[in-house]
Specification:
The protein has 377 residues and is α/β, with parallel strands linked by helices. The chain has 2 domains: 218 residues, Spore Coat Polysaccharide Biosynthesis Protein SpsA, Chain A; 121 residues, no CATH class. The protein is 44% helix and 16% strand. It is globular, with a radius of gyration of 22 Å. The relative contact order is 0.13.
């Protein structure tokens, strides 16, 4: 009833106090981030679409793996690949950029970088979702095409017509956002019709006309009577535009979700223990596809060392004790799928690495079970 009371359901937050505390913290963070970037409306957009990749400088060679798969796409309407680095240029970044131009010169590459101020603020905040938001927003601000696709740094496309299929879908449907699935979580339900950012293609003109960059950032608010924590792009979708779904089959893409955010937490938070479904151990494999084999070889030797519960990587202790045997098997399956797509078979060094991961996780799980039994006896 118009003008009547609004019934607020729990949504993500069990209490009003928890909701308001989180909302105030997020509002403070948004106030810090808001001045970092602005954009203007896109006048006379070019036809076609751009792919925007937010690049983690600490994993710089991984861009070469991504471009290796992107270069296999049959994408005649792809006008620009906007690779956005999370810091100003460094010798390693410049080396990777030069190698990318040599090896994947057929792609319309353009490299963008954070300003020193942007890099300093985000390093101080140290939250992975801030990096993805700012990198994507910088790409959106630089885009000159009507449409753009958020192509994740850790998403490896296998089927060669994925990009064009998504471009044709958004054109024919005349939607503003097309995602691979509806979002579920943080107080948001699939029936809300909001889509995830994974390989999201959207109308750049619409977004830059209707929203500011900060409007795309994570937002704690009331939505349909629920206390929700909107992920990137969800608040904008809830305010204006039409969203729809075009799935990507599991066999058509290898995408270890949140791998880069987990990496950011690992390097920024002392004592960080990754969750049970973490994908950090996919990083050495991805780096090997770029030609950097040392990380995978070193971790493989550590994994094979009997009784070693924690690994050393990037000068820090990497605790994978929470990783489950089921997810370790999933990591093996993802690597095998990509190996067969690139090489036609799984290379011996990859078989050895994945076997070491699975064995290590099984031994850790067995040791934990024995410990619980001993405590209960």
């Amino acid at each position: 009833m118009a003008g009547g009371p609004v019934l607020v359901m729990e949504g993500k937050y069990a209490s009003a106090g928890q909701y308001w505390l989180t909302k105030l913290r997020r509002a403070a963070l948004r106030a810090i981030l808001r001045p970092l970037l602005s954009w203007k409306s896109l006048a006379d957009p070019e036809p076609g679409y751009s792919a925007i990749i937010g690049c983690a400088s600490g994993l710089a060679p991984l861009l070469l793996t991504n471009l290796r798969m992107l270069s296999r796409q049959q994408a005649p309407n792809l006008r620009k690949v906007l690779a956005v680095w999370d810091r100003p240029p460094t010798p390693q970044i410049e080396q990777v950029q030069a190698q990318a131009r040599r090896e994947y010169g057929q792609l319309p590459l353009e490299f963008l970088h954070y300003t020193p101020t942007q890099a300093a603020v985000l390093a101080a905040v140290g939250w992975g979702w801030c990096y993805s938001w700012l990198s994507w927003s910088i790409g959106i601000a630089a885009a000159r095409t009507r449409y753009a696709l958020l192509h994740d740094f850790d998403a490896m496309l296998i089927r060669p017509d994925i990009l064009e299929e998504r471009y044709e879908a958004i054109r024919q449907r005349r939607d503003q956002y097309v995602g691979i699935r509806n979002y579920l979580g943080n107080g948001v339900y699939e029936c809300d019709g909001l889509v995830t950012t994974f390989e999201l293609i959207f109308d750049v003109s619409f977004v830059r006309e209707r929203f500011r960059p900060i409007d795309l950032f994570n937002h704690v608010t009331i939505y349909k009577g629920r206390r929700v924590d909107f992920d990137t792009f969800l608040y904008a979708q809830s305010r204006a535009g039409r969203s729809s779904v075009l799935p990507i089959a599991v066999a058509d893409m290898v995408h270890p979700s949140q791998m880069v955010c987990q990496y950011t937490d690992y390097v920024n938070r002392r004592g960080y223990v990754p969750p049970e479904h973490n994908n950090l151990l996919m990083i050495p494999y991805f780096l090997s596809l770029s030609g950097e084999d040392e990380t995978m070889e070193d971790l493989c030797r550590q994994l094979e060392s009997a009784g070693q519960s924690a690994l050393k990587w990037l000068g820090r202790r990497l605790d994978v004790s929470r990783l489950t045997p089921v997810h370790a098997r999933w990591i093996t399956e993802q690597a095998a799928r990509l190996e067969r797509a690139v090489f036609g078979e799984v290379r011996p060094q990859v078989v050895r690495y994945c076997s070491a991961v699975e064995k290590h996780v099984l031994q850790s799980a067995a040791a934990a079970a024995d410990g619980r039994l001993a405590e209960g006896s």
